[in-house]
Design goal:
Layout (H helix, E strand, L loop, with lengths): L2 H17 L3 H19 L8 E5 L5 H9 L4 E4 L2 H14 L6 E4 L8 H7 L2 E5 L2 H14 L3 E8 L9 E2 L3 H10 L4 E7 L12 H16 L6 E3 L6 H6 L4 E4 L1 H4 L3
Parallel strand pairs: 1-2, 1-9, 2-3, 3-4, 4-5, 5-6, 5-7, 7-8
Amino acid sequence: MSLWTWVIVFILSSQYSVLVADNLSERISSVFRRICHAAMRAGRAPESVSLVAVTKHFPVSAVAEAVELGLRIFGESYVGEAADKRETILRENPLSSVSWHMIGHLQRNKVKRAVSVFDCIHSIDSIALAQVVDEYAAKAGKTLDVLIQVKLSEEDTKTGIAEAGVQALAERIKGFNKNLNLIGLMAMPPFFEDPEQSRPYFRRLSDIRDTLAARGIELTELSMGMSNDFETAIMEGATMVRVGSEIFGSR
């Protein structure tokens, strides 16, 4: 284990809990400790995992407090809600370098506004959607990080592109102009009480990423794992975990 890893573990397990004592800070500290421990168990550096704090349906006051406590990446599922929060945070804390991630299903009629609000979109699931996002990003003079959402279960409530279509979609996105930067894959397994039941889904998404790499499509990010199973996801290679209730409590 590197010295840097030990430094991170010390900071996250000790200093944070000493510096702050309110409930939100304790929850954030706990999540970071768990990320560190899961990464170390997997033989990975803790800094290889980014925490996306999921704030949908939580008040902007909770987001503002989280920003004050050091969180910088926030995930939202609804464009209008994210736009309102982003505007408030920018107004109240203009010097904070906050990044906003779209983690919910993106409707094409919401793309124009989404492009202006978000820095990263996790839920590209069709060539048609990718084209519209690319067009509006080009008009805005903006480059967006994007991930392809892969549907790995048969649940009607889950969106995403079927595994068989991932390579073609990745190739099309790579062939667009420079306004979309394809960085990875995202998936949402079915909900299980036992996080071990999510493991095959996480492993499958990692395998898909490896298959693409073998075919010349290198992707660095795997967005997978939520409050109930993010440690298992990290063990299977997650580089972004989307955590809401473990940080902010029940909605």
